[in-house]
Amino acid sequence: MTPRVLVVDDDPGLRYTLREILSGEGIEVEEAADGAEALARFEASPFPLVVTDLRMPGLDGLELTRRLAARSPPPRVVVVTAHGSERQAVEAMKAGAWDYFRKPFENDELLAVVRRALEAAHLVEENARLTGALALSGSLVFASPAMARLAELVARVGPRDVTVLIEGESGTGKERVAEALWRASRRADRPLVRFNCAALSPELAEAELFGHARGAFTGAVRARAGLFGEADGGTLLLDEIGDLAPAAQAKLLRVLQDGEVRAVGEDRARRVDVRVLAATHRDLRAQVARGAFREDLLYRLDVVKLHLPPLRERPEDIPLLARHFLALFSARFGVQCPPPGPELLARLAAHPWPGNVRELEHALESLVALSPEGELDLALVPAAGGGAPAAPPLGLKQRVEAYERGLLVDALREAGGRRAEAARALGISRVTLHDKLRKYALGPDGDGGG
Ligand SMILES: Nc1ncnc2c1ncn2[C@@H]1O[C@H](COP(=O)(O)OP(=O)(O)OP(=O)(O)O)[C@@H](O)[C@H]1O
């Protein structure tokens, strides 16, 4: 795909110069003489990158930046500022510009900014494409036959209003599957309410789920409808259902059988219309055998059972998941990283992933956060058989630096990649930030500002 840039300037001479430089690099350039024309062109066909002058008659560069930043998805905007107008550049960054460079500029300087912006835009686009494809396939990334069968089941039972029990080890994607079911359902416009049955004491869990009357127990100053009330008309995901206490199990059975909820301390029951999805990493049959889970409740929940295989049983999914998480985190951190190469994939394939997809997700998040810009440092990847990444022991200086680098990455992420904003959040000047980004190879050289 040829990268495209829209160049906006009222000065035909400068437009010509920009076109010459950029098209010499194989970038397709279109021109607009002012903000209004730029918006019209953008309307006709969106560009990933807009390079605009600030001072123009009519709709100026600042207003154009603001309007483009409000688009979904927003293009990257790089502004051209006159020498000595630092304040304007800051204004433009606040309005949503991605970066700026000053006139007069060196060709290399301009190209570095444009390339960086195009690459970032490409990653975001790639990510949006991936997520778009996900939405279609029910937000699941997979390549294995086992997951393909599961995705088919999700698509089939999603729209039917049945209770679904989702089983699988921790981190295999049970919640993700629940979301896919909900999205495929006729209740997708109503909320998906989540509750972790293991998170609260039995009494609180019961009150939280089914609601309580005023004064039902100490601290119950007001009556509450409970999550079944909140989810009325929608979907309720009961995570860790195997940890639900016996009294709550009995109440849940009644909701599933009769569609009726009785709040704690209340005599009368209310009717609710809630689709229940339940997830567990436990073997509920074994729980029943031990007397810890009601058999009649298991039958009610188990109308449709979806089993998520552990990641080690579906290695075909690893490369695709790796690509997905690399795109996700590099876009989120505003850094560039190459696609996973054969060596990285071999390492990922050799690890047993006891924490399943969640562990893989975290491993790739650290990899993107800690690798030098534009690279993937394979030493950060978990070694085969081992749990922890094979990072060498670090001295105090390296540890402090790793910490500082992490803070910078976080600040940049929070600021959506906008450096002026990140500098402000960190309480340092843009110059200091610039130096630090360079030190940690986070911000490429040739940054137009200082
Ligand atoms: N097939 C998949 N495609 C994309 N992302 C996935 C997939 N499976 C899992 N994930 C991601 O992995 C992480 C763990 O998944 P999730 O929380 O759904 O697991 P879980 O089985 O519910 O875990 P737990 O039992 O610990 O609650 C999430 O961030 C989720 O988005």
Beta-sheet strand percentage?
Answer: 5-15%
Distance between the termini: 33 Å
List the secondary-structure elements in sequence, H or E: EHEHEHEHEHHEHEHHEHEEEHHEHHHHHH
* Number of individual domains: 4
What small ligands are held by the chains?
adenosine-5'-triphosphate
Radius of gyration: 27 Å
Summarize the structure.
With 450 residues, the protein is of the alpha/beta class.
Q: How would you characterize the overall build of this protein?
A:
The strands form three sheets. This protein has a five-stranded parallel β-sheet, sandwiched between helices. It has helices at 12-23, 35-44, 61-69, 86-94, 107-136, 145-157, 174-183, 202-210, 226-230, 246-258, 284-290, 295-301, 317-333, 342-350, 356-370, 396-414, 419-426, 430-439; strands at residues 4-8, 28-32, 49-53, 76-81, 99-102, 164-168, 192-196, 235-239, 260-261, 270-271, 275-280, 304-308. The longest helix is centred in the N-terminal third of the chain and has 30 residues, at 107-136. The chain has 450 residues and is α/β, with parallel strands linked by helices. The chain is elongated, with a radius of gyration of 27 Å. Bound molecules: adenosine-5'-triphosphate (ATP). The site of adenosine-5'-triphosphate has 17 residues, from α7 and α15.
